[in-house]
């Protein structure tokens, strides 16, 4: 789960004050279920923040590597989770050559909605996987009935909360995330909604894999 930028000009994250989010209750079991199902030998967790989810994913037999642009978050992750390898770099930068094509699975848990250039996530995932493997993305779910319900309940401003620094900048539906994935050379192989009843789901869990022989747009 990605963090906000911690450069000198953007302010710093106080990782000591960040507690486990309520969404972890339904996102972590969903992610672990798919990791257990595919049983990857090597897994890359994009947008790992302070590494707490990467450490959960590493409880099985997978060798897990976490990646995040936050040097503060990665320092905390290395301190608290020495059993996991961590990379401090932006999604805008190609993966180190020694990591390209070396992973069986990539996860991005509640990350893509924070990205101004979300296609970069697919580019990095394709680098990590090569021509085969699995990509697991979770992101807040948006659909017609949920959007109407938010508007009728007067929750639209609160949901998009423009008064909150950083936060979500992209709001995906099933079709819009699927369209971007297809554009970037991935196909959706499974979709599920988690948290609350399906029409009002909090998040969606999407499992994808690279389409063989399909070029991708370079970002």
Question: Can you walk through the features of this model?
Answer:
The chain is an alpha/beta fold. 30% of the residues lie in helices and 20% in strands. It has helices at 24-38, 52-57, 71-80, 119-129, 144-152, 156-160, 174-183; strands at 42-46, 63-68, 85-88, 105-109, 134-140, 186-194, 203-210. Strand 2 (63-68), helix 3 and strand 3 (85-88) form a beta-alpha-beta unit. The two termini are 22 Å apart. Residues 2-12 and 214-219 have low confidence and may be disordered.
What's the arrangement of secondary structure elements?
Blueprint: H1 24-38, E1 42-46, H2 52-57, E2 63-68, H3 71-80, E3 85-88, E4 105-109, H4 119-129, E5 134-140, H5 144-152, H6 156-160, H7 174-183, E6 186-194, E7 203-210
Q: Give the strand order of the largest sheet, numbering strands 1, 2, ... along the chain.
A: 3-2-1-4-5-7-6
Mass-distribution shape? globular
How many helices? The count is 7
| Low-pLDDT regions | 2-12, 214-219
Beta-strand residue percentage? 15-25%
Q: What structural class is derived from the secondary structure elements?
A: alpha/beta
Mean pLDDT: 85
**Termini separation (Å)?**
22 Å
Rg result: 17 Å
One letter per element, helices H and strands E, the order comes to: HEHEHEEHEHHHEE
Instruction: Please report the total strand number as a whole number.
Output: 7
Share of helix among residues?
Answer: 25-40%
Q: How would you characterize the largest beta sheet? A: 7 strands, mixed
């Amino acid at each position: 789960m990605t963090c906000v930028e911690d450069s000198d000009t953007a302010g710093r994250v106080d990782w000591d004050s960040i507690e486990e989010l309520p969404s972890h209750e339904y996102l972590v079991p969903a992610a672990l279920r798919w990791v257990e199902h595919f049983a990857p030998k090597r897994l890359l967790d994009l947008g790992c923040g302070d590494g707490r989810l990467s450490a959960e994913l590493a409880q099985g037999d997978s060798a897990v590597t976490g990646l995040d642009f936050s040097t503060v978050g990665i320092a905390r992750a290395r301190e608290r989770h020495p059993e996991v390898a961590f990379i401090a770099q932006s999604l805008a930068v190609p993966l180190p050559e020694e990591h390209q094509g070396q992973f069986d699975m990539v996860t991005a848990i509640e990350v893509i909605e924070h990205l101004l250039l979300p296609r970069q996530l697919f580019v990095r995932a394709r680098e990590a996987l090569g021509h085969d493997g699995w990509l697991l993305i979770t992101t807040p779910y948006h659909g017609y009935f949920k959007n109407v319900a938010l508007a009728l309940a007067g929750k639209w401003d609160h949901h998009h909360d423009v008064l909150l620094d950083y936060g979500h900048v992209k709001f995906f539906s099933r079709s819009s995330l699927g369209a971007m994935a297809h554009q970037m050379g991935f196909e959706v192989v499974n979709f599920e909604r988690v948290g609350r009843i399906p029409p009002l789901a909090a998040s969606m869990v999407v499992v994808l894999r690279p389409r063989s022989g399909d070029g991708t747009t370079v970002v």
